[in-house]
Amino acid sequence: MSRTPCTSHPSRPTRPSRTPRPSRTPLLSGTSLRSRRAALLCVPAAILLALTPSTASAYPDPGTVTGATVVHDPTMIRTSGGRYLLYATGGGLSYRTSTDRRTYSAGGDAFAGRPGWWSSYGTTEAWAPDISYQGGKYLMYYAVSTFRTNRSAIGLAVSSTGLPGSWTDRGTVYTSTASSDYNAIDPNLFVDDDGKWWLSFGSFWTGIKMIRIDPSTGKQLSSDTARRSIATRSTAPNAVEAPFVVKRNGFYYLFASYDTCCAGVNSTYKVKVGRATSVTGPYRDRNGVAMTDDGGTPVLESHGRYIGPGGQSILHDTDGDVIVYHYYDGNNNGTPRLGVNLLDWSSGWPVAF
Where is the signal peptide (predicted)? Predict the structure, then answer.
């Protein structure tokens, strides 16, 4: 969710996921995966490698999901038992669950009672959670802030089950103030192959930042307090936020949401990506333009009724990588809805389908 100084922000709903299906067909709304693959086989490899969506029609519709699908800034994980847990912006972090990544039901918030320190940031609700499973427990980073300011904080909660009401808050991880040139919201934890933990975050101001995290505490590593810049825009209001980092085939990929969210059918959100050979960048798009210099290859953009896709995260599931996001439904007064698509990495770049 954007926290630009000139944009208001409604509560964000949770994001649901879909059941792994060997054919993956349900993720393509009204389109057969087999026919999509057949069509791709007819495209010369050089053209496929150069393919970048450039028009609205180039982007897929979200896969079919049902039930409690009104969400904003969803994060989702699959438990060892095959259950999907989804948390999202709003209240004490709103919750959805699914057994098949298609049909979702709602439950209680992550926090039955709000941590007292939230009120120092002028809020009683949390934004943009990021759930993962590390060292035998669930971790959830999240943000609290005040609309139109960067008086913000990233918090951390832990749980043995990941279920609502089971979370123990560990307090603040990183903060920003009105005098900061960054905004401490929209956190994402990335654990590298070498065991190092990294937290990316940021919204507007001077863009996306990254810090080292101590695996023993889940908070900033005391021996490395550098704050690195990994993406920004060249002109105000520097509309980039909601980072998410993954590593695939030897490259690090940074997904981010660009432009404006939270304005219903007037939202201009879109998802872009860049890649790097180092976790701290520089991240560059397909054309070699750095994400610190307005770079970014499109992954999802508005088309038809599906307006302003963003607030994304990536779920690595049994049938591949799934991009989970919200969009604003143009057929329902701009209500934020859960979007889910699989990603194809065969070109070396993520392509939603």
Answer: none
Q: Would residue 195 be called left, alpha or beta, if left means φ above 0 and alpha means ψ between -120 and 50 degrees?
A: left
In a domain, 16, yes or no: no
- pLDDT, residue 29, reads 34
Give the C-alpha separation, 128 to 261, whole Å.
13
* CB-based contact 216:273 (threshold 8 Å): no
| Domain ranges, residue 136 | 25-352
- The domain tally of the chain equals 1
In the block, residue with structure tokens 């995290």: 213
State the Cα–Cα distance between residues 18 and 329, nearest whole angstrom.
19
Residue 282: is the preceding peptide bond cis (ω within 30°)? yes
Q: How far apart are CA 121 and CA 253, in angstroms?
A: 32
Q: Considering the domain boundaries, does residue 164 fall inside one?
A: yes
Q: Which helix (H) or strand (E) holds 41?
A: helix 33-41
CATH number of the domain bearing residue 31 = 2.115.10.20
Distance in angstroms (rounded) separating the CA atoms of residues 90 and 73? 9
pLDDT in tens, 258-274: 999 999 999 999 999 99
CA atoms within 13 A on the CB side of 202: 31
pTM, two decimals, is 0.85
Q: How far apart are CA 278 and CA 131, in angstroms?
A: 23
Locus of tokens 């439904």: 329
pLDDT 10s digits, 317-344:
999 999 999 999 999 999 999 999 999 9
User: What residues are annotated to the active site?
Assistant: 73, 241
